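Page 37, continued from 36.
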């Protein structure tokens, strides 16, 4: 697959860099050699910064840069599959580019625009084949910010939209779907937030530092609206408010102070004393405005409640999106703030919020979506891309409901379990564990795990074929979920493992039982005892997954796997030669035996490495895991699973579990063995 970007400016160079980072060859086009060179230099500078921050090595940076081919020759776009236009925000310039692209590219090349303010449908109107056109709105800096708004135009071919969406996932992006409306999803409420801050300044409710400090406290963000405008450019904020005003009216008109600063490209003066007494008044306005705008865009079908929140979290790095903020504040209070905004601007009260107020209940977020295609295949997608689809009670509950519905629906003849974004499922929600240990509620963890086991059991016993679509990173509970399916089809980029004993616990959702029934006791003890991460190819050799395919044809491979029907009784796969020493040693040795062995004296490199890893991991967790792997393998599966559950209270009660779970993302603790 070959990709291209036209316009090697701030956005274009970053988009090309991201594509190259994900392994694609990219053609980067600008007007002339100088424009191209500027773009290449921008990429080199950002990569250099990445090397300095140890995000990649100098060699990796070189490889990435080497995948970007800069040119001003349109004919070099003849063979590209997707081209993203990121030229000046000028309709005529953009339309001329599309006409050049329609001449230069293949008939099936997807042409996308990164426009911030124009309508995708309008931009496509002069094209010969507008059905191949779509909006892909990236956020600055596009090599670092994962969010992309996917905006079909009125004439976009739905299959092309699907393809463009999948490609964004391949690029490691977090796509959200938006209707072709001014400001799309994120800028609509974000720019309103900025403009409202200026209104509060003009109305004398607070000075610049007070408004910034109040906003930081209420939204949990690192920078207030004025600080942020200074960083991203005040003129951009001014232009963006004008775009919204043109479509949505007076409420969005840029305030005189914004026009003044924007026109003169003058930064805000951030100096002065913070007056905390003004915080409440400021935040009533800022929150009320964001809530009103977010609810209205959902009412209009521009974006969903979930995507609006994902947009805020991923694109703006707000800890909580507008709807999570509404829930946190309480529906009644949020509704009162929105009512004040509506009264001021003579707007109707938004329906989505009225429904919640009438029901007296908070927003419930769809964490699992179901899509049934015309062949009767139901795809259940866990949609928490920014949390790498981690399992928590709400996800398990919704997955259970979706699975029950699909498995009992006579129109469904096969079920796919998938994860949105870059990961399949990266384990369980660690914060949930930590919070419950701190609240002395290990019983809740036990009941969450029992619910998870019951769901996985239903998946395992389902009479319809169930396939795990393992698109990327799969850890712990994610791997256990996949193992409960009839077949696992992994993307070649997927990696998987059981990290639990490294954080003080053991796999409790069937990992100690279903793994040994696929790959044997020795290999299971090895994987769980060392936390070794496998590539998809290694997992295939071992028999842990059933098929591997490049991401672009993963869906076809999943369909092939579904066609094989439900899984027959599994027998343990023969361990490949390169793992035999490890498998034998782990099968025959207790944890203590393994610790006594000297890695330096082992002839087998893999075994030596495995032994080196063990001492840093949690001893109680490994001992229990080994015990239940060994005893469980001799039992029928349901009893093995009971064994797994039986030790949860013990393991979550250890100091090692608490310290290990709290250490995630930081330095691992030294385990005490208690
Ligand atoms: N800057 C942002 O934060 C941001 C965020 C999202 C979207 N966007 C959108 O992305 C687009 C690009 O913005 P930018 O900030 O990167 O602009 P920019 O001015 O930094 O870069 C534009 C580039 O396009 C090149 N160019 C102009 N006409 C061309 C043509 N006919 N053929 C080839 N190259 C041409 C220019 O030489 C320049 O290098 C705009 O549509 C903008 O609205 C910008």
């Amino acid at each position: 697959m070959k990709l291209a970007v036209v316009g090697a400016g701030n956005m274009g160079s970053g988009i090309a860099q991201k594509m190259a980072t994900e392994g694609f060859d990219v053609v980067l086009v600008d007007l002339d050699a100088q424009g191209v060179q500027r773009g290449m230099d921008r990429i080199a500078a950002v990569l250099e910064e990445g090397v300095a921050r140890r995000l990649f090595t100098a060699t990796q940076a070189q490889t990435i840069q080497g995948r970007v081919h800069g040119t001003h020759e349109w004919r070099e776009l003849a063979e590209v599959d997707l081209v993203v236009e990121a030229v000046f925000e000028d309709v005529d310039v953009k339309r001329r580019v599309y006409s050049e692209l329609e001449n230069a590219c293949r008939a099936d090349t997807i042409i996308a625009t990164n426009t911030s303010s124009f309508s995708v449908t309008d931009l496509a109107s002069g094209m010969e084949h507008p059905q191949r056109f779509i909006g892909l709105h990236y956020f600055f800096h596009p090599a670092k910010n994962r969010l992309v708004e996917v905006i079909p135009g009125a004439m976009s071919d739905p299959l092309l939209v699907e393809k463009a969406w999948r490609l964004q996932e391949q690029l490691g992006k977090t796509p959200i779907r938006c209707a072709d409306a001014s400001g799309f999803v994120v800028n609509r409420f974000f720019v309103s937030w900025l403009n409202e801050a200026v209104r509060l300044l003009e109305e004398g409710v607070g000075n610049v530092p007070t408004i910034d400090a109040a906003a930081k406290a209420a939204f949990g963000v690192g920078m207030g609206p004025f600080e942020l405008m200074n960083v991203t450019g005040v003129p951009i904020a001014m232009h963006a408010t004008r775009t919204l005003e043109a479509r949505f009216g007076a409420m969005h008109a840029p305030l005189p102070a914004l026009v003044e600063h924007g026109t003169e490209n003058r930064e805000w003066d951030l100096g002065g004393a913070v007056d905390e007494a003004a915080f409440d008044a400021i935040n009533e306005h800022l929150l009320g405005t964001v809530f009103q705008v977010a609810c209205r865009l959902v009412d209009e079908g521009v974006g969903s409640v979930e995507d609006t929140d994902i947009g805020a979290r991923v694109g703006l790095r707000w800890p909580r999106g507008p709807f999570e903020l509404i829930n946190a504040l309480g529906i009644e209070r949020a509704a009162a703030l929105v009512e004040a905004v509506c009264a001021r601007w003579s707007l109707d009260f938004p329906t989505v919020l009225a429904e919640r107020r009438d029901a007296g209940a908070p927003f419930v977020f769809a964490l699992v979506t179901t899509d049934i295609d015309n062949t009767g295949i139901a795809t259940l997608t866990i949609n928490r891309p920014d949390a790498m689809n981690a399992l928590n009670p709400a996800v398990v509950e919704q997955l259970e409901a979706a699975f029950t519905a699909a498995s009992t629906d006579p129109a469904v003849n096969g079920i796919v379990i998938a994860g949105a974004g870059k990961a399949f499922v990266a384990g369980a929600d660690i914060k949930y564990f930590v919070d419950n240990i701190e609240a002395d509620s290990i019983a809740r963890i036990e009941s969450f795990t029992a619910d998870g086991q019951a769901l996985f059991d239903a998946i395992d016993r389902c009479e319809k074929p169930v396939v795990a679509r393992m698109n990327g990173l799969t850890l712990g509970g994610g791997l256990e979920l996949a193992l409960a399916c009839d077949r696992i089809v992994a993307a070649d980029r997927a990696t998987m493992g059981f990290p639990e004993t490294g954080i003080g616990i053991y796999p409790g959702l069937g990992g100690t039982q279903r793994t040994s029934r696929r790959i044997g006791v020795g290999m299971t003890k090895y994987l769980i005892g060392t936390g070794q991460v496998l590539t998809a190819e290694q997992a295939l050799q071992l028999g842990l997954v059933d098929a591997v395919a490049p991401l672009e044809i993963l869906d076809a491979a999943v369909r092939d796997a579904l066609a094989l029907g439900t899984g027959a009784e599994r027998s343990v796969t023969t361990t490949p030669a390169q793992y035999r020493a490890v498998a034998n040693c782990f099968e025959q040795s207790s944890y203590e035996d393994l610790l006594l062995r000297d890695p330096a004296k082992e002839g087998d490199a893999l075994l030596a490495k495995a032994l080196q890893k063990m001492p840093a991991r949690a001893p109680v967790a490994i001992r229990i895991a080994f015990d239940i792997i060994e005893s469980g393998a001799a039992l029928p599966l349901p009893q093995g699973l009971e064994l797994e559950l039986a030790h949860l209270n013990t393991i979550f009660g250890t100091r090692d579990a608490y310290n290990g779970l709290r250490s995630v993302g930081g330095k691992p603790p030294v385990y005490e063995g208690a």
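The mean pLDDT is 96. Flag for discussion at group meeting. The chain has 31 helices and 18 strands.
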